[in-house]
From TrEMBL:
Protein name in the entry: Catalase
Cofactor(s) the protein requires to work: heme
Source organism of this protein record: Salipaludibacillus neizhouensis
Pfam families: Catalase (PF00199), Catalase-rel (PF06628), Catalase_C (PF18011)
Record-level GO BP terms: hydrogen peroxide catabolic process; response to oxidative stress
GO molecular function: catalase activity; heme binding; metal ion binding
Length: 683
C-alpha cells in the first residue's frame, strides 16, 4: 500500500481511509486467515456433551481476539468523540507564516477533530464540570499539523513537571477510586491551595465554560504562545483560537448533573446528530499575533501559560474556517487510535519557550507508545499523513510498510544517500534560530509570579449571572471537600481574586471569611463573558408537549416557522404512536415523558396540558417547570397556557404566550435565540 497518491483537496484523507475501510455486509464469514466458516454458534466438542477441543482454531482465534480487544485509555482526555472535516483559510497568511495550508483560500485541508473531557474515564458522563479538549489534526501536504487545545485559554500550572501531580490530584482518589469525573474532592482542592498559579484556570473551571451546551458551542484555544515564521525567516508570536459560529453557550449545573444520568452521551450524540442532519459545526480559526519586539510590553509574561492575551489589547484576527462534515465509520479505529501531538508541526509554525509546552513535546509520543503499543502508530490509517513519508526507521510491533532494499541508515553511498534531506527552500523544516543563553536552574521565572491579576480580570468581566454561577460552583465543590483546613486555604487563596467571591463562598461552606485587602484590579475584558456571544436559534431542540385534539393549522404554522429558522421541534406526548389534531392533522410522537426529559432540550413549546388527563398534566407540568427552573425559553398556546398560569410562569422573562400565531412564533424564536433567561435567577 503506498501513500504516494495525489493530495486531493478535502478528499485526500477520505481517499486514503477508504483504502482501509471495509464493509462486511453480504460477505461470507471467514477466519482472519480467510478461511470460510461453516458454524459460529457451537465450539468443537468431543461428543455433544463433551469438552471443547484445543483443535478448535476458530474458537481459539475468536476468543483470543476478544480477550485482547482493550487498549489502555488515555491517561487524561479518555472520554472523547471526533469527526472529520475540512479547513479553508480566508486569505494568504504569507506575511506571517509560510505554512502551506495557510496560503491559498481555494485550498481545502482535511481535518480530524477530537473533543474530550479531561478527568473522567472512557465511559464517564460527558457533562462533568471540566475543561474540554479540542484537538485538531490538519492533514496538510507538508505533513500533519496538530493543534492540541482546550476550551479554556489558560492552564493550571506553569511547568510540565507538575502535570503528573495535578492529574493525580484531579483523578479519583487512589485508595477508593472516588469520585469519577469530578474535581469536587479533597485532593484536587488541596493541590489548588498549594499551587496558587492555578487560580486563573480554576476561575474558568468554576465558570459556565466548564459545562458547555455542545461541542459545537464552545471556543478552542491553543493555550501556549507559538511562533509563526515567514519565508524571510521573520517570526511573530501567535496564540490560536477557535470561534464557533453558533456562539459559546452553556447549560446550568443542576441540569449538567441530570444530563449525566439521563443521557451520558449527550455531547457526542449532539455532534453526531448535527453532522448526520447536515447541520455541520463550523468554527473560525483566529490568531492573536505579536511582533517579537513587543514581547516585554505586557504586565504578564507571554510565555506564562496561566495568562491570556486580552482580546481588547491584542485583537483576534479571523483567518479561516473549519467545517466538520463527516462522522467516523468506526470509533475505535479512528477516534480512539488517533494520536495527537503538539510537536507535530509544519514549516512556518514553531514553538516558544513556554515550559508547559516544552514538557508536552515529550509527553505525547511517550504516552502513545504505551497506549498504541509501539513506535508504528503513525502507520495507523487515521494517523497517516496524506503526503508521502520516507525515512530509515524500520521494524517494531505492527510494522506495516514494506521498505525495500538493504539500506536503512544515513549517511550511505549504497542508496545514493537517500532518502535525501530537503533544504529549507525545498520544504525542509528548520527550527527558528532563537538566541538563548542562561545558567541551568530549577526555578520559576520572576515574571511568572503574579497568580491573581488575570483571575481577577476574569471575575471582573463576568455578568451578574455568571458571577452567581461561579460562586455556586465553588460552594458546591468546596462543599464536597471534607478537610476544613483545605476549605479554609482555598477561601483564603481566592480572597486574592475577589473578596466578594471568597466571602460568599466562605459563608456557604461554614468557613471564615478571607483575610486581607480587596484586590484593586478593576480591568475587564468583555470578550471573556458568554453574555456577549453570538445568539442564534439554529439547531436548538424544542420539546413540543402535545396530545390529541390539538389545533392542527396553528401547530403546523408554528412548527414550520421553527424549522425554517433551523430549530428542531420534537414531539413529546403521553405515549408513542400518532396523535391527531381537531382538524385531522396527524403528528408522529418522538418521545414520551418517560423517554424524554426537559434537560435534553433547549426550550419547551406547550400545546396541551392533558385536558382532563391528570397523568399527562402532572408530567407536562413537571417537564415545563423544570425547563423554567433552568431558565429556558418556554412558549405555550391554547391548553398549554394552563401549564404557565397554574405555575405562575406566565409573566416571567422568556415565557411566550398569547397574540396571533405569526407574532407568537416570532417572539418564541427570538426567545430561543436568547438561550437562557438569567433574569429569572437574579430577580
Ligand atoms: Fe495534554 N496530554 N498535557 N494538555 N492534552 C494528553 O496525550 C500533557 C495540556 C490535551 O484528543 C495526553 O495522547 C502534559 C494543555 C488534549 O487525543 C498526554 C501537559 C493542553 C488532549 C498529555 C499537558 C492539553 C491531551 C494523554 C502539561 C491544552 C487529548 C493522551 C505539560 C493546550 C488529545 C494523549 C486527544 C492529551 C500530556 C497539558 C490538551 C499524557 C504533560 C496545556 C486536548 O500526553
Amino acid at each position: 500500500m503506498s501513500d504516494d497518491h495525489k493530495v486531493n483537496g478535502s478528499n485526500s484523507k477520505k481517499e486514503q481511509l477508504d483504502k482501509f475501510t471495509t464493509d462486511d455486509q453480504g460477505k461470507k464469514l471467514t477466519t482472519n486467515q480467510g478461511l470460510k466458516v461453516s458454524e459460529d454458534e457451537f465450539s468443537l466438542k468431543a461428543g455433544e456433551r463433551g469438552p471443547t477441543l484445543m483443535e478448535d482454531f476458530h474458537f481459539r482465534e475468536k476468543m483470543t481476539h476478544f480477550d485482547h480487544e482493550r487498549i489502555p485509555e488515555r491517561i487524561v482526555h479518555a472520554r472523547g468523540f471526533a469527526a472529520h472535516g475540512e479547513f479553508q483559510v480566508y486569505e494568504s497568511m504569507n506575511k506571517y507564516t509560510k505554512a502551506g495550508f495557510l496560503q491559498d483560500p481555494s485550498k481545502k485541508t482535511p481535518v480530524f477533530v477530537r473533543f474530550s473531557t479531561v478527568a473522567g474515564s472512557r465511559g464517564s458522563g460527558e457533562l462533568a464540570r471540566d475543561a474540554r479538549g479540542f484537538s485538531t489534526k490538519f492533514y496538510t501536504e507538508e505533513g500533519n499539523y496538530d493543534l492540541v487545545g482546550n476550551n479554556i485559554p489558560v492552564f493550571f500550572i506553569q511547568d510540565a513537571i507538575k502535570f503528573p501531580d495535578l492529574v493525580h490530584a484531579l483523578k479519583p482518589e487512589p485508595h477508593n477510586e472516588i469520585p469519577q469525573a469530578a474535581s469536587a474532592h479533597d485532593t484536587f482542592w488541596d493541590f489548588i491551595a498549594n499551587n496558587q498559579e492555578s487560580a486563573h484556570m480554576v476561575m474558568w473551571a468554576m465558570s459556565d465554560r466548564a459545562i458547555p451546551r455542545s461541542f459545537r458551542m464552545m471556543e478552542g484555544f491553543g493555550v501556549h504562545t507559538f511562533r509563526f515564521v515567514n519565508e524571510e525567516g521573520k517570526a511573530h508570536f501567535v496564540k490560536f483560537h477557535w470561534k464557533p459560529l453558533l456562539g459559546t453557550h452553556s447549560v446550568v449545573w443542576d441540569e449538567a448533573q441530570k444530563i449525566n444520568g439521563k443521557d451520558p452521551d449527550f455531547h457526542r450524540r449532539d455532534l453526531w446528530e448535527a453532522i448526520e442532519n447536515g447541520d455541520y459545526p463550523e468554527y473560525e480559526l483566529g490568531v492573536q499575533i505579536l511582533s517579537e519586539e513587543d514581547e516585554f510590553n505586557f504586565d504578564f509574561d507571554i510565555l506564562d501559560p496561566t495568562k491570556l492575551w486580552p482580546e481588547e489589547e491584542v485583537p483576534v484576527k479571523l483567518i479561516g474556517k473549519m467545517t466538520l462534515n463527516r462522522n467516523v465509520d468506526n470509533v475505535f479505529a479512528e477516534t480512539e487510535q488517533v494520536a495527537f501531538h503538539p510537536g507535530h508541526v509544519v514549516p512556518g509554525i514553531d514553538f516558544s519557550n513556554d515550559p508547559l509546552l516544552q514538557g508536552r513535546l515529550f509527553s505525547y509520543t511517550d504516552t502513545q507508545l504505551i497506549r498504541l503499543g509501539g513506535p508504528n502508530f503513525h502507520e495507523l490509517p487515521i494517523n497517516r499523513p496524506v503526503c508521502p513519508f520516507h525515512n530509515n526507521q524500520r521494524d517494531g510491533y505492527g510494522r506495516q510498510t514494506i521498505n525495500k532494499g538493504p539500506v536503512s541508515y544515513h549517511k550511505n553511498s549504497l542508496a545514493a544517500n537517500t532518502p535525501e534531506l530537503a533544504t529549507e527552500k525545498k520544504g525542509g523544516y528548520t527550527h527558528y534560530q532563537e538566541k538563548t543563553e542562561g545558567h541551568k536552574v530549577r526555578a520559576r521565572s520572576e515574571s511568572f509570579k503574579d497568580h491573581f491579576s488575570q483571575a481577577t480580570l476574569f471575575w471582573n468581566s463576568m455578568s451578574k449571572a455568571e458571577k452567581e454561577h461561579i460562586t455556586e460552583a465553588f460552594s458546591f465543590e468546596l462543599g464536597k471537600v471534607k478537610s476544613e483546613f483545605v476549605q479554609q486555604q482555598v477561601v483564603d487563596m481566592f480572597g486574592n481574586v475577589s473578596k466578594e467571591l471568597a466571602t460568599t463562598v466562605a459563608e456557604a461552606i461554614g468557613a471564615n471569611p478571607p483575610q486581607g485587602e480587596e484586590s484593586n484590579d478593576t480591568k475587564t475584558s468583555p470578550a471573556l463573558s458568554q453574555e456577549n456571544t453570538k445568539k442564534k436559534p439554529s439547531t436548538r431542540k424544542v420539546a413540543v408537549i402535545i396530545d390529541n385534539d390539538f389545533h392542527g393549522a396553528e401547530v403546523s404554522q408554528v412548527l414550520d416557522a421553527l424549522k425554517i429558522e433551523g430549530v428542531q421541534p420534537e414531539i413529546v406526548s403521553g405515549k408513542l404512536g400518532v396523535i391527531s389534531g381537531s382538524d385531522g392533522k396527524e403528528l408522529k410522537v418522538d418521545h414520551t415523558f418517560l423517554t424524554a426529559d426537559s434537560v435534553l432540550f433547549d426550550a419547551v413549546y406547550a400545546v396541551s396540558a392533558g385536558q382532563g388527563n391528570s397523568a399527562f398534566y402532572k408530567q407536562a407540568a413537571y417537564f415545563t417547570k423544570e425547563a423554567f427552573t433552568h431558565f429556558k425559553p418556554i412558549g405555550a398556546t391554547h391548553h398549554g397556557e394552563k401549564l404557565l398560569t397554574d405555575n405562575n410562569m406566565e409573566s416571567s422573562p422568556g415565557v411566550i404566550s398569547g397574540g396571533e400565531v405569526k407574532s407568537y412564533t416570532d417572539r418564541f424564536i427570538q426567545a430561543i435565540s436568547a438561550h437562557r433567561y438569567w433574569e429569572r435567577e437574579v430577580i
